[in-house]
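Collaborator request, handled under Task 6.
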Amino acid sequence: LRYDTTSSASVFLAGTNEQNMLPILIIAFALLIPGYNGFTANPSKQLTRLATQKPSMPLTQLNVLPDSVVSFEDARGYFYLWFFGGSGGAGVAFGQFPRQFENFQQLIGMSDDGPTQGGDTVGISPLCLYPRDLNKADLDKVLNNKLSVEQMVEKGPKPNYLSERGYLCFESFVAANKGCNPLTVRAVFSAMSTGDNVQPDAAQASLVEFASDASPDRAVFKNALLKTKLAGFSAIAFLLFLLGPIAGSTCLEALSVGWFPDWPGNDNLPWSLLVGPGLWTIPKYWI
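Structure tokens returned to the collaborator:
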């Protein structure tokens, strides 16, 4: 009797364990089945091509879109962000070209303006894009000005907001150096700032450093002038780089994924716009 009771209990427990394991086995089996959709994301958010879902994002040669862009709606939003942001940056970048050309014309106009004391030149770099070299005597005359920057700001004109707030503007620097060579005055100010305003403390420190340089070619001033010129050119070049390879490729891929994701040329952008299948075939795949 005891043996039969124990056997019955064992059979009962075994049956109970099998019943408890059954749901677990079903879940495990479901997870292992390839393509089972019970535990996967919504098909509209996946990259797989299904006949019943909206057009999905293809892989293009550019591959600049982030992983967060998983549908053509996301790609369209990304396109709007980069397109309008890039347009604003383009306006800033291209607006610098007329200004740089105007500055260069002003330098050319100053090249023959006097007075000048002549004599030896300092040998500024051609990369500064100045129409001629600067005379040492003209440079020393500007650097030996007895007025402090604070006095220049106080006595000089204040044509803009920053100058009213105590910044040294170019107009005030010109007024403080009457009787000096105009091109040299422009060069000294450009060695202190990439624009038309400079902080008074920075300007005073630069003028003291330039004036205390005892090298025969005024190396401290020359290096500072070259540095500020290259900094201005580099800023424009970097902005154009952002607008060209980076913003351009991002907008192009977002455009293709957002509006013509099934176009065969998406695998070879941007060259496929020109040759095979060509830009003119895109309307057939527009969504």
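The cover message to the collaborator said: "Strands lie at 168-169, 197-198. The two ends are 79 Å apart (CA to CA). Please let us know whether this matches your experimental observations."
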